[in-house]
From TrEMBL:
Alphabetical keyword list: DNA-binding, Transcription, Transcription regulation
N-terminal signal peptide: none
Function: Regulatory protein of the TOL plasmid xyl operons. XylS activates the xylXYZLTEGFJQKIH operon required for the degradation of toluene, m-xylene and p-xylene.
PANTHER family: HTH-TYPE TRANSCRIPTIONAL ACTIVATOR RHAS-RELATED, TRANSCRIPTIONAL REGULATORY PROTEIN
PROSITE patterns: HTH_ARAC_FAMILY_2
Name recorded for this polypeptide: AraC family transcriptional regulator
DNA-binding among keywords: yes
Organism: Pseudomonas parafulva
One family name in Pfam for this protein: AraC_binding
Length: 288
């Protein structure tokens, strides 16, 4: 059904789950354009609730509709837009590949071609994560659901393309070092010393196991901190510096590439009640 010209426009909105946990979950509605091309370092697992959710992925325009499961692989470029004039509504969960690795135990990350699946195994395995964001997930429920999702991803993706054995333990040591030293200017030489693995072999293993490069992993963890700081009322400048970026413009460029919108636009889309009182100060000039 087309929207009548006399009907008032509905503003785009995003609701984020505020429950503490390992999985970020959102529900959103967009009337037309949603996001510019960007990349996450997580699996993006979702469900279109209404309308048509269109996106470019792996060189083609895809169309998510109710009944499909969206499965976007870590670090794959994609965008988002309404496929019809009526807009679209969806839920999405962003799942750290390290959680999937905890179940896979060092296998290459499963890749589901096309970004969409009609396989009932993925549909059922993702059900826990696409409940309403106001539905709290118990810790054990979340952990069980991650395991079920990892097994479904592996089954649906099929046998991974052949490659040499991966050094999972060394990659885990490198990841732990990164998380403990985000305030430093981390280098591959530092990761080589921390992991005990030759730096270029480590870099290849890291990509296969976690879906992104060590540098992108560092950048995304710093952006996680930026988002938390912005919601706590920090200005763009203060959040950028506190999270380890050179300056505001450096942070904004990475933020837009990673989330498809600049940081203030990201804040504005959060529905009332999702931002804390005085959650951001718009005195900063947004850099597009």
């Amino acid at each position: 059904m087309k929207r009548s010209p006399s009907m008032p426009p509905v503003s785009d909105w995003v609701i984020r789950s505020t429950q503490p946990g390992a999985i970020e979950r959102i529900e959103a509605w967009f009337g037309s354009h949603g996001y510019d091309p960007h990349r996450h370092d997580t699996y993006s697992i979702g469900r279109t609730l209404a309308g048509v959710q269109s996106f470019h992925y792996k060189g083609a325009l895809r169309h998510g509709m109710p009944g499909n499961t969206l499965v976007l692989h870590p670090d794959e470029l994609h965008d988002g837009m309404a496929g019809t004039e009526t807009g679209f509504r969806y839920r999405m969960a962003y799942i750290d590949p390290a959680l999937i690795q905890a179940a896979l135990g060092g296998q290459p990350l499963p890749f589901v071609p096309g970004g969409l699946s009609s396989d009932p195994r993925l549909f059922h395995a993702s059900e826990t994560f696409v409940q309403g964001v106001d539905h709290p997930l118990e810790r054990l429920e979340e952990q069980d659901a991650v395991y079920d999702l990892a097994m479904a991803l592996r089954a649906v993706a099929g046998k991974p393309r052949g490659r040499k054995r991966l050094d999972y333990r060394s990659a885990e040591r490198a990841k732990a070092f990164i998380l403990e030293h985000l305030h430093l200017g981390i280098t591959l030489e530092m990761l080589e010393r921390a992991s005990g693995r030759e730096q270029w072999s480590l870099s290849r293993d890291f990509r296969a196991l976690y879906g992104t490069s060590p540098y992108r992993f560092v950048t995304l963890r710093r952006l996680d901190n930026v988002r938390r700081l912005l919601l706590d009322g920090f200005t763009l400048v203060d959040a950028a510096l506190a999270a380890g970026f050179h300056d505001q413009s450096h942070m904004t460029r990475h933020f837009t590439r990673s989330y498809g919108v600049p940081p203030l636009r990201w804040l504005e889309r959060l529905r009332p009640g999702q931002q804390r009182a005085g959650s951001y100060k718009p005195a900063d000039t947004e850099l597009q």
